[in-house]
């Protein structure tokens, strides 16, 4: 039950990572402690046939959503995007779609790098604390799932 | 019966058809025809005399007799076996007659309108008789005439002004000014009053919720587009002085432990807005006042003189302001120069009073003219705070520190835009001001903009700001900007480019390389420091802009002259450049889901320009929210909302008191039979949360837990204590405090998380002190009598309500939960017994019988005196908190509600003292032990709870006793740590919830 509510570590950020030391008075402490806050990855305008895969939503639900788009939604192609941990799942979804279509669907995968932004907030603001922002990169995959056009 | 009568009857009966036969009894077989039916003679026996046969003979005791008869008390064993129809009918004839008469006759009070059935009634029928059906019209007409005749005799209410006169602009303004003497109106008041349920709160008239149904639409606006709120009621306090001195003074009010203070580097530079919690000077961690946000004006080079705006909730301001004054030693008021009308730049609004007084003085026909003759218009619209007398000081200074405090309440309009598209709304509605042409630059002008244009440095700054503003357009979501970013800007009057239709503003994301670079810089570094400067900080500019605002009428006139209708007004009038400040508001920063939710921008404007910006913003497709939505916003954000969730602040205490009376009155308005009986639900205080008592009781419990060898006697005493204790309100108002130290919260939050959940992955790097007895005890010694904010998310069904109980789960509960029974959603509380019901009833009866209340109050104590044993709280109070969850305890405690003597005694003495506050379904005042009243030990209460649309489950924000929480966590197994039970005040079902402490 607990697992159902707490989200899996996902493409979406989780807030506190690096945190303060224990409250116990330790001799050696990092002079500046930071709290890490991750900002959301940059969103791009979304077409109707874009599917952003995450780790929070149930796998089957996401698969069903893609199938609906391809069959009921009347789209000839959809784009499945996955970031970070969700790459695996995005690939899974695409392969499942292909398998269930008996070879009618084709895949075209692209990878890219997404820049993510983290905010580092100093816990002790008055001494040295200059809040920092850092960027890091994460991998992403974009899989085009489409019916090949009949020649 | 006389012979003649009998003959007559026989004659009648002879006409009966022969087939009709009556049998008087199975024995009496009188089947000889209709003429002889066995009762021919009076001697035929008592039982044979039929009912209908003796219409007028009351003396005939053989028939049916109504009521109880003294002499012939015994009724017949057998009912008459037959009646004669004709005789029966004759007997009823008179009754039927009477009935018919009654039906046809119109009773005295009957109105025509009352004669029509409900579904045929129409509005204003008595006024217009044609709305009546034809058949009734005549009567109605007659009645109407009658009433008209009677009408003029009544004294007509004298109305000295016609509606037209009253609606005339000046008079209307006077009326409006009169109406806001007590509760100030915001500038958007009339707009709101047409669309919102208004509330009078904190000296303002505020929109609570829209009259239309739009709860979900507003939520969608917050999460997808943009929600607009008028936050002008927030009070701004301006501090001016040397930076060092200001910081030295202000540091007394804050503590670094609670997070960044006024001195944090980025906020001090003016680049970011900061927020902090303010305490009474030097009193941390007790006596908090409340949260404030603040904004430093960027440094002017070569000067240490700084300007600081502190934004506070109006409920907080009345506590904060004296505190600031005493801290800064600002005691000398600067009395504002009252109003030569010639100087329009006078900061204090010109008083509304002279107008009405003059009007009253000059009677009759001259009224209008004389009012016009005055050089001041008859009613001047109140701008700023109208409740304040014009001569009241707004500025205080100090000779020793040189600090100047300025009360800028209602001087600056503040709008809040919430949602990912709020920057798009802003960029579409606002437009950076254009430079003014050379001609107007050359000549001296009373307006600020031409002068501003002359300064080259200012203009380069303006161009840079405009560039940043342009870049903002290319951002996809508001959450991408660094939290708290500030951007100053000069914009054009947004009324000039008002669209014809309401449209939805959306951001335009372009992928150009050049724009992308700038956008990236904005995202990473925020707005450069010098761009945070704005002329809005300058009082003279503010007043100049306010006074020279083009009126709506003037704008409309100019729009009419435009050749293409609906096109933009150009050239831009000189007056329509306004300095504004845009302040980014961070979204959800705590928790793991939905981070960045509810981010937005605040727009600060000079006063008087409220409506000029409001309508253009509305035309960009935003939703408008009221107070209720801001509560929901903070709830979804997981942030405490100011007066509601701060029970240790004076404003919070005051709010809780108000809330209690309000809820109690609402409760009392229900008919008693339809009320929830909270006593039966085991809910001691459904309308308030006795935090003080909770904290004290938990202190007792834990202290007993440590003293292992305490004697049973002592235990009994301490057990009794919570019941005996006088109401917690009589003790020091808030000797408990909410835990706000960042470090401790982080530690606590790491303790709360279950160690084997998927969410744990991110926490592996953390090296926190693991939770054990030693660290727990050490933690608790540093925070005595503390409560902690927690966010509770329900694991399964359920919607937490206000003041729901947070309870400790017993070992059995946890085991059952661990077994993964599908149907198990939580334990049930046994219904309690309402001991007070009989007392309430008895008192009611006593009141009815002998009107004076003294009789009942004298009878009550005697009834109480019969049970002399001291109040005894249920046993669980004294239990070892770690053993609280054992099965034996459960049985013991669950038995307590069913055994009535324990809970009943404590209050019994009280209701003798104050018999008036005995309300059916509520516990009277001195409550018994709040922790151990129910079968599960209470940890705390929920202050806001609802189904959270963002999380998709019930979520609540509540406070729990810190000691209770730590001990509960220690007792729980590691994989089920942080699970508690939640029970609504009107339910018996406990639901599982997960505690999240957010740091």
Kindly report the name of the CATH homologous superfamily of the domain at 47-151 in chain A: Alba-like domain
Overall morphology of chain B: globular
Task: Report strand % of chain A.
Answer: 25-35%
Number of strands of chain A: 5
| Integer tally of domains of chain B | 5
Shape, principal axes of CA atoms of chain A: elongated
Structural class of chain A: alpha+beta
Helix proportion range of chain B: 25-40%
Structural class of chain B: alpha+beta
Regions with little confidence, pLDDT below 50 for 5+ residues of chain A = 1-29
What is the fold-level CATH name, i.e. the topology of the domain at 47-151 in chain A?
Answer: Translation Initiation Factor IF3
Placed side by side, the strands forming the largest sheet of chain B appear as 6-7-8-5-11-10-9
* SS element count, helices of chain B: 33
Q: Summarize the helix and strand pattern of chain A as letters.
A: HEEHEHEE
Distance between the termini of chain A: 52 Å
Low-confidence region ranges of chain B:
20-62, 339-378, 708-733, 755-765, 851-914
- From the alpha carbons, calculate the radius of gyration of chain B and give it in angstroms: 39 Å
Largest sheet of chain B: 7 strands, antiparallel
In short:
Chain A has 151 residues and is of the alpha+beta class.
Topology (SSEs and partners):
The complex is a heterodimer of chains A (151) and B (999).
Chain A: H1 2-5, E1 34-38, E2 50-52, H2 59-71, E3 77-83, H3 86-100, E4 106-122, E5 132-146
Parallel strand pairs in A: 2-3
Antiparallel strand pairs in A: 1-4, 3-5, 4-5
Chain B: H1 3-14, H2 85-104, H3 112-115, H4 134-150, H5 163-167, H6 169-179, E1 184-185, H7 189-195, E2 196-201, E3 204-210, H8 215-224, E4 227-230, E5 235-242, H9 243-250, H10 265-268, E6 274-279, E7 288-296, E8 305-312, H11 314-328, E9 332-334, H12 354-361, H13 366-373, E10 395-397, E11 404-407, E12 412-418, H14 422-429, H15 438-442, H16 448-454, H17 456-473, E13 486-492, H18 513-525, H19 539-547, H20 552-561, E14 577-585, E15 600-606, H21 610-618, E16 623-624, H22 627-637, H23 650-669, H24 691-706, H25 712-724, E17 737-738, H26 742-752, H27 773-782, E18 786-794, E19 805-807, H28 811-818, H29 836-849, H30 853-865, H31 887-898, H32 901-913, E20 938-948, E21 953-961, H33 962-971, E22 979-983, E23 991-996
Parallel strand pairs in B: 1-3, 4-16, 17-18
Antiparallel strand pairs in B: 2-3, 4-12, 5-8, 5-11, 6-7, 7-8, 9-10, 10-11, 12-15, 13-14, 14-15, 18-21, 18-23, 19-20, 19-22, 20-21, 22-23
Helix pairs in contact in B: 12-13, 14-17, 24-33, 29-30, 30-32
């Amino acid at each position: 039950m607990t697992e159902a509510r707490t989200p899996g570590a996902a493409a979406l950020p989780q807030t506190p990572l690096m945190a303060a030391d224990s409250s116990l008075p330790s001799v050696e402490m990092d002079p500046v402690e930071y709290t890490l806050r991750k900002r959301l990855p940059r969103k791009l305008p979304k077409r109707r046939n874009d599917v952003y895969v995450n780790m929070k939503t149930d796998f089957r639900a996401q698969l069903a959503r893609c199938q609906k788009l391809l069959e009921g939604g009347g789209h000839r192609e959809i784009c499945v995007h996955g970031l970070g941990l969700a790459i695996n799942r995005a690939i899974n979804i695409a392969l499942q779609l292909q398998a269930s279509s008996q070879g009618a669907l084709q895949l075209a995968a692209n990878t890219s790098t997404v820049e993510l932004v983290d905010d580092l907030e100093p816990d002790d603001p008055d001494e040295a604390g200059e809040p920092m922002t850092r960027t890091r990169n994460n991998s992403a995959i974009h899989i085009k799932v489409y019916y090949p056009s009949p020649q | 019966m006389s012979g003649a009568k009998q003959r007559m009857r026989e004659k009648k009966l002879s006409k009966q058809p022969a087939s009709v036969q009556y049998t008087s009894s199975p024995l009496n077989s009188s089947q000889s025809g209709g003429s002889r039916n066995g009762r021919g003679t009076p001697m035929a026996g008592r039982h044979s005399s039929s009912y209908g046969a003796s219409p007028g003979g009351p003396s005939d005791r053989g028939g049916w007799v109504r009521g109880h008869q003294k002499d012939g008390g015994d009724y017949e064993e057998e009912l008459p076996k037959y009646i004669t129809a004709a005789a029966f009918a004759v007997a009823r004839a008179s009754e039927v007659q009477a009935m018919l008469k009654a039906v046809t006759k119109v009773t005295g009070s009957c109105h025509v309108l009352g004669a029509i059935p409900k579904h045929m009634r129409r509005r204003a029928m008595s006024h217009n008789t044609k709305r009546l059906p034809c058949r009734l019209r005549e009567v109605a007409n007659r009645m109407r005439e009658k009433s008209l005749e009677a009408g003029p005799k009544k004294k007509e209410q004298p109305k000295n002004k016609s509606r037209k006169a009253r609606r005339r602009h000046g008079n209307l303004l006077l009326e409006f000014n009169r109406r806001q003497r007590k509760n100030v109106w915001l500038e958007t008041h009339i707009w709101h009053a047409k669309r919102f349920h208004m509330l009078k709160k904190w000296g303002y008239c505020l929109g609570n919720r829209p009259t239309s149904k739009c709860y979900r639409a507003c939520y969608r606006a917050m999460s997808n587009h943009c929600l607009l709120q008028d936050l002008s009621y927030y009070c701004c306090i301006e501090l001016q002085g040397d930076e060092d001195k200001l910081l030295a003074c202000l540091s007394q009010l804050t503590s670094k432990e609670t997070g960044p203070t006024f001195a944090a580097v980025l906020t001090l530079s003016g680049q970011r807005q900061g927020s902090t919690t303010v305490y009474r000077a030097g009193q941390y961690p007790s006596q908090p006042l409340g949260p404030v946000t603040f904004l430093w004006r960027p440094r002017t080079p070569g000067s240490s003189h700084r300007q600081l705006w502190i934004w506070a909730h109006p409920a907080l301001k009345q506590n904060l302001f004296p505190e600031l004054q005493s801290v800064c030693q600002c005691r000398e008021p600067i009395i504002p120069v009252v109003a030569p009308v010639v100087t329009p730049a006078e900061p204090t609004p010109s008083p509304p009073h002279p107008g009405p007084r003059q009007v009253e003085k000059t009677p009759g026909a001259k009224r209008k003219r004389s009012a016009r003759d005055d050089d001041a218009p008859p009613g001047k619209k109140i701008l700023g705070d109208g409740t304040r007398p014009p001569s009241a000081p707004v500025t205080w200074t100090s000779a020793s520190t040189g600090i100047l405090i300025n009360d800028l309440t209602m001087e600056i309009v503040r709008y809040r835009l919430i949602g990912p598209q709020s920057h798009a709304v802003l960029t579409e509605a606002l437009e950076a001001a254009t430079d003014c042409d050379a001609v107007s630059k050359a000549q001296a002008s009373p307006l600020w903009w031409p002068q501003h244009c002359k300064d080259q440095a200012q203009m380069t700054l303006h161009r840079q700001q405009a560039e940043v503003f342009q870049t903002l357009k290319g951002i996809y979501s508001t959450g991408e900007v660094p939290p708290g970013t500030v951007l100053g800007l000069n914009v054009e009057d947004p009324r000039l480019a008002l669209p014809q239709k309401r449209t939805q503003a959306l951001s335009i994301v372009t992928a150009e390389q050049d724009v992308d670079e700038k956008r990236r810089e904005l995202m990473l570094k925020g707005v450069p420091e010098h761009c945070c400067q704005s002329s809005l900080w300058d009082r003279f500019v503010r007043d100049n802009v306010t006074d020279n605002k083009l009126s709506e009428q003037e704008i409309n006139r100019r729009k009419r002259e435009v050749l293409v209708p609906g096109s933009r007004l150009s050239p831009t009038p000189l007056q329509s450049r306004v300095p504004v400040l845009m302040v980014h508001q961070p979204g959800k920063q705590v928790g793991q889901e939905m981070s960045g939710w509810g981010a937005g921008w605040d727009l600060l404007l000079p006063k008087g320009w409220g409506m000029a910006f409001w309508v253009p913003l509305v035309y960009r497709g935003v939703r408008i929210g009221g107070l209720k939505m801001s509560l929901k916003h903070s709830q979804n954000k997981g942030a405490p909302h100011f007066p509601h969730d701060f029970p240790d602040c004076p404003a919070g205490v005051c709010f809780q008191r108000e809330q209690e009376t309000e809820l109690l009155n609402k409760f009392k308005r229900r008919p008693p039979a339809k009320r929830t009986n909270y006593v039966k639900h085991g809910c001691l205080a459904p309308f308030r949360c006795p935090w003080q008592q909770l904290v004290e009781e938990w202190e007792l419990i834990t202290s007993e837990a440590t003293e292992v060898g305490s004697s049973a006697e002592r235990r009994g005493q301490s057990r009794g204590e919570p019941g005996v204790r006088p109401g917690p309100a009589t003790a020091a108002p808030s000797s408990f405090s909410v835990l706000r130290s960042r470090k401790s919260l982080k530690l606590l939050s790491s303790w709360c998380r279950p160690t084997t959940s998927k969410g744990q992955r991110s926490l592996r790097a953390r090296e926190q002190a693991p939770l054990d007895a030693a660290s727990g005890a050490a933690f608790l010694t540093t925070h005595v009598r503390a409560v902690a904010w927690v966010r509770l998310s329900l694991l399964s069904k359920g919607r937490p309500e206000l003041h729901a109980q947070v309870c400790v789960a017993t070992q059995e509960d946890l085991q059952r939960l661990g077994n993964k029974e599908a149907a198990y959603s939580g334990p049930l509380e046994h219904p309690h017994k309402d001991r007070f019901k009989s007392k309430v009833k008895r008192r009611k009866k006593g009141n009815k019988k002998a009107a004076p209340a003294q009789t009942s109050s004298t009878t009550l104590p005697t009834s109480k005196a019969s049970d002399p044993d001291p109040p005894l709280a249920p046993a669980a109070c004294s239990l070892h908190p770690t053993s609280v969850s054992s099965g034996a305890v459960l049985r013991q405690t669950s038995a307590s509600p069913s055994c009535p003597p324990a809970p009943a005694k404590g209050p019994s003495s009280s209701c003798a003292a104050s018999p008036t506050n005995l309300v059916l379904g509520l516990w009277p005042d001195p409550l018994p032990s709040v922790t151990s009243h129910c079968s599960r030990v209470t940890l705390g209460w929920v202050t806001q709870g609802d189904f959270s649309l963002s999380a998709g489950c019930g979520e609540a924000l509540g406070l729990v006793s810190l000691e209770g929480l730590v001990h509960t966590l220690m007792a729980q197994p590691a994989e089920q740590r942080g699970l508690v039970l939640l029970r609504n005040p009107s339910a018996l079902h406990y639901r599982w919830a997960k505690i999240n402490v957010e740091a």
